[in-house]
Design brief:
The structure holds two protein chains of two kinds.
Chain A: H1 5-34, H2 37-44, H3 55-69, E1 74-78, E2 87-93, E3 96-102, H4 118-127, H5 134-156, H6 173-186, H7 188-206, H8 209-215, H9 219-226, H10 244-255, E4 260-266, E5 274-279, E6 290-295, E7 301-306, H11 310-323, H12 329-356, H13 363-392, H14 400-421, H15 424-450, H16 452-459, H17 462-484
Antiparallel strand pairs in A: 1-2, 1-4, 2-3, 4-5, 5-6, 6-7
Helix pairs in contact in A: 1-4, 1-5, 1-12, 1-13, 2-4, 3-10, 5-7, 6-12, 7-11, 12-13, 13-14, 13-15, 14-15, 15-17, 16-17
Chain B: H1 2-16, H2 18-25, H3 31-54, H4 58-92
Helix pairs in contact in B: 1-3, 1-4, 3-4
The chains are: A alpha+beta, B mainly alpha.
Chain lengths: 490, 120
């Protein structure tokens, strides 16, 4: 530590930022992409028609397919809606959760390519592809460090408001500092909000004692209080499931224009089966707190829950603010832009660390420089590689989602190793150039394999146009960055 | 409407800061004028916030307002950067004289002038 408050804060800002910087960047990129999770789901499943969906029919079709193909204690279905062209079903097996995109018309996955799609980036954002609870715990620690880095950064960069619009390019360390301050301050309220609400969403992992004391370790009762819905154990007697469509029509009628977000069937095929339907998001920021439960055997309403507890509404509001589900198209783009600014703030902070140090032959410098390269240039490459694999792998490839995942992680690891083997400035130029190339290649592959680009533009398909436009913008930005590298990144 | 106000507010704020005022006016204006621009910028930003609060669906619009602040600031940053790059190019081509800078120019009234050495 350094003497003096500001110096101590600067020291903490620099080192805390460095230690979790790479992890935070991965989390920020995953979070930024998951703003358009449903749109990415639609993009990665081009076989699904993007047309108006009858949620009651979609739910009934999905349950019909699950009843013959998924023997499990429960089915969880994110129903197709205006944003999601397919219903995403989850169920527990001996090997963990299975996930399947289902057609809203037939309820079957036939002809739909297997892909984790936007769900991968969403899960990666807070689980980092690690088993429970380690991924979430790591993300939580990173979020807490991020809040520390943000608060200490406000103290450390004391001229942030005086130099608000200052960007001096081609001046080495000063340029990185200007860039870092600009992108950090422009979206500072968003950065603080997303770090704080991110901590809140996972805080029970860090501070479980209150709940443990109140519920004496009874997790089921805690869960039932937190997400109230009618719960009952399996009766052990088989019973057919009553028609789902009338239940969903009743729910749609009661929820008004909010629509349905999820459909859960607990104990399917058992006399104790319960169907719970949750409402889509209502006006305001909080995630929906309304659900309707039916007796799965008779179709009779068992109960309705409308969330009114102030503490739970506060949590729902903070959670809703983090998830951005309330956001319309314009707000989602603003979330996306703010996410890019956050990623840029982390990346420029990491680059500033090396730019400040003039010992390019020291081990610490080389380690940080190579890790910077692997994450700042390698991660976007891996994301583009994931999307490219989605377009180029045969649609009927067995275990296709796993192969897509391997393309992401093995590709990323290969780029990290490649960066370590090359001279720094060459590796930076080549990796940034490769990222630009891959982003462009996704657009070309998309046009070549699905005909989405010309057809999409002609049909005014926002998802096709938006995805390709963003990819082309990133390709241009990375190509520009690659062409501007002279000497090392400092 | 809100975005226009936000951009206008940031433009005034930028024109009122020491470094950027030189880019806008070709010289650093007097402190009183810069302070006027700064307060004008804050007032326009406050007006945009008032319009958001007075409108319907305040929580969602407020979140959007914070996002628009980022957009507005980014637009002005790029604007000032392009202006600065243009000016640097023009200076190197000899078309424009290097702008006049006051010797001791405090950014704010409370800031001590730089470069003034006091001997005891």
């Amino acid at each position: 530590m350094r003497p003096g408050f500001r110096q101590s804060m600067t020291w903490l800002h620099n080192w805390a930022g460095l230690v979790v910087g790479w992890l935070l960047l991965a989390i920020a990129v995953g979070g930024t992409l998951s703003v358009f999770r449903q749109e990415l789901d639609a993009w990665t499943h081009p076989e699904l028609a993007r047309s108006a969906v009858d949620q009651a029919e979609a739910g009934a079709a999905a349950v019909q397919w699950l009843s013959t193909h998924a023997k499990a204690a429960a089915w969880y279905i994110d129903l197709a809606d205006a944003r999601s062209p397919g219903s995403l079903a989850f169920w527990m097996t001996d090997h963990g959760y299975e996930q399947q995109m289902l057609s809203p018309v037939t309820g079957a996955p036939d002809g739909i390519r297997q892909s984790l799609g936007g769900e991968f980036f969403y899960r990666f954002h807070f689980e980092l592809q690690l088993p429970y609870p380690w991924g979430r715990l790591t993300a939580l620690i990173a979020a807490e460090m991020m809040l520390t880095v943000l608060l200490t950064g406000i103290v450390a960069h004391r001229r942030i408001f005086k130099d608000f619009f200052t960007l001096r390019t081609a001046k080495g360390q000063r340029s990185w500092l200007d860039g870092h301050v600009a992108v950090s301050v422009f979206a500072l309220p968003f950065h603080l909000m997303i770090a704080f609400t991110g901590i809140i969403t996972l805080v029970t992992l860090f501070m479980p004692w209150g709940a443990a004391a109140a519920y004496k370790g009874d997790q089921a009762r805690l869960f039932a209080d937190f997400y109230p819905a009618i719960q009952r154990p399996a009766a052990g007697k088989p019973a057919p499931l009553a028609p789902i469509e009338p239940m969903l029509r009743t729910a749609l009628h009661r929820f008004g224009g909010a629509g349905i977000s999820t459909l859960n069937v607990i104990n399917p095929g058992d006399a104790g089966q319960v169907v719970t339907v949750s409402a889509g998001d209502a006006p305001g920021i909080a995630t929906a707190g309304r659900s309707l439960s039916f007796d799965g055997t008779t179709g009779r309403i068992l109960g309705e829950h409308v969330e009114a507890r102030p503490a739970k509404r506060l949590f729902d509001t903070l959670y809703g603010l983090h998830m951005g589900r309330f956001a319309g198209l314009a707000s989602r783009w603003l979330y996306f832009l703010s996410g890019i600014l956050l990623s840029a703030a982390i990346a420029t902070g990491l680059l500033l660390w090396t730019a400040k140090r003039r010992r390019p032959h020291g081990f610490g410098y080389r380690l940080v420089d190579r890790l910077n390269m692997g994450v700042i240039a390698g991660l976007p490459s891996a994301c583009a590689g994931f999307l490219l694999a989605n377009r180029l792998l045969p649609a009927d490839l067995p275990a296709r989602s796993t192969v897509e995942l391997r393309c992401f992680f093995l590709g990323w690891a290969a780029l990290l190793i490649f960066g370590c083997l090359r001279r720094s400035e060459k590796a930076w130029r080549e990796l940034l150039g490769l990222t630009a190339l891959l982003c462009g290649a996704v657009v070309v592959a998309d046009a070549a394999t699905t005909r989405a680009l010309p057809g999409g533009i002609a049909a005014g398909d926002g998802i096709a146009i938006g995805t390709d436009a963003v990819l082309l913008a990133f390709a241009a930005a990375f190509a520009f960055a690659s062409s501007r590298i002279r000497g090392n990144m400092a | 409407m809100i975005l226009t106000l936000v951009i206008a507010g940031f433009a005034l704020l930028g024109a009122g800061t020491y470094r950027q005022s030189e880019l806008v006016f070709g010289h650093v204006p007097r402190l009183r004028m810069r302070l006027g621009l700064l307060y004008g910028g804050y007032a326009v930003l406050a007006l945009s916030l008032i319009l958001v609060i007075a409108g319907p669906d305040v929580p969602r619009q407020l979140v959007q307002w914070f996002g628009l602040l980022s957009v507005g600031a980014l637009v002005m940053l790029i604007g000032f950067w392009l202006r600065s790059a243009y000016q640097a190019r023009a200076e190197s081509a000899g078309r424009v004289r290097t702008p006049r800078r006051p010797e001791a120019a405090p950014a704010y009234a409370s800031e001590k002038p730089k470069g003034v050495l006091v001997r005891r």
